[in-house]
Amino acid sequence: MNAETVTEPTTLGVATWTARAESHGERVDAATAAQRARRGRGESHPVEDFLFSYYGTTPSQLRRWHPGPGVRLEGAAALERASWKHYRVVEGSVELDVAAFVAARGRAVDFVKGLLTATVSRPARLGCFGLHEWAMVYRAGEDGVRHQQVPLRLGQAATDEVVERHQIACTHFDAFRFFTPEALSRNAIQPTRESQSELEQPGCLHAGMDTYKWATKLSPLVPSELTMDCFDLASQIRLLDMQASPYDLSGYDVEPVRIETAAGKTAYIERQREFAERSNALRYRLIDVLDTVAD
To answer: Is 71 helix (H, G, I), strand (E, B) or coil?
Structure first.
């Protein structure tokens, strides 16, 4: 791990970087407006709140703009950032303190870079049909369903039948760990946390959403514009994830992708293939950022 790889920083004048920061803030505000309004009313949404409840980054944290490594910000306003974690003052400007970040987060950088590099090296495995969500409620009974505010679209018995008629092949540990006990042995793969880098592949919807997780986990190293690109993709993937789920989300104007039918399977694969390509593009961009501080 080499914290001094970035040797020729780009200096941004006040007008340039403040415009970027304002544009980012407006983008975040638009993307989080519905969630912030619901939170103010004490309401929840089983699809759209996931990125905030599961990944844990708040709209206010997301709104804070970071330029990434090798960028110096001029002006008195930039000096306010000197107190931010992992920033420093250099020649009257403020920049990310790469050495401090690497000292604190070097192991995370190495892990994420290795995981992303391994993922993009593999072909996308298509045709899982989002059955991980079905496995999470297999034989669960009324009290075991995760999203209890919404009913099962087919009911419990028919939902169980869909699981039993299909081969489940989930490669993502953070989905697999939520399977019901009865569903665990039905998965053709038995992923573990230790095997994550060996199994992760770009066709997995949850791995695609996780590009947002890795961007936020490595803040402020990752430029905020890239983080928001990951957020936008994760939001779209989450929608498909729940459209293909066993839940009846008609009360939230979410149309199902009926993966228990041939037409639904075709529609799912088409979108899964698109998301695999888009998530790989983001992975390459994240790897490029990590390369600036890696050996």
So the answer is: strand
Which backbone phi and psi does 4 adopt, to 5 degrees? -110, 20
- Residue type, position 37, single letter: A
Query: What sign for the dihedral angle of Cα 81, 102, 107, 115?
Result: positive
Q: Of 37, 256, 45, 254, nearest to 147 (Cα)? A: 45
204 vs 284: CA distance, rounded Å: 16
For the record, the structure tokens of 38 come out as 């619901």
Q: Strands 71-73 and 10-12: what pairing?
A: parallel
Q: Tally Cβ neighbours within 10 Å of residue 181.
A: 10
pTM of the model: 0.93
**Three-state DSSP class for 11?**
strand
Q: Give the number of other CB atoms < 10 A from CB of residue 248.
A: 15
Condensed to tens digits (0 to 9), the pLDDT of residues 101-154 reads 999 999 999 999 999 999 999 999 999 999 999 999 999 976 555 555 799 999
Three-state SS at 206 = helix
- How far apart are alpha carbons 129 and 170 in whole angstroms? 10
Alpha carbon dihedral 244, 281, 191, 262, in 10-degree steps, equals 30
